[in-house]
Design goal:
Blueprint lengths: L1 E3 L1 E8 L15 E7 L5 H12 L4 E7 L4 E6 L5 H10 L2 E3 L2
Length: 95
């Protein structure tokens, strides 16, 4: 099992300049997660599949080169659930 580090870098509302409450239920929140250990497109696909299962997620873009996943969602994401999704992809979170 590959070791990875998941760190919540940013979670902001795309419609709010101060990152506060969304002004509408239809607005998108963007969460960036740093992931160490993704080495290829297969790794990206596994992480994308698991993160896409989280409630409210509308899009996931992963990059093994940048070592991150950018998650668009209609809800604020719980960092524990994000970590659990990465674990479900077959990786281990390092604290």
């Amino acid at each position: 099992m590959t070791e990875i580090k998941v760190e919540l870098i940013e979670s902001t509302c795309a419609c709010s300049s101060d990152g506060g409450q969304c002004c509408s239920e239809n607005e998108v929140r963007v969460t960036t997660v740093k992931i160490k250990g993704m080495t290829c497109e297969h790794c990206e696909g596994r992480v994308t599949t698991e993160l896409s299962k989280l409630e409210g997620v509308t899009e996931v873009k992963t990059s093994s080169v940048a070592g991150e996943a950018v998650i668009s969602s209609s809800l604020e994401l719980d960092s524990e659930l994000v970590s659990e999704a990465v674990i479900a992809a077959g990786y281990r979170v390092i604290s």
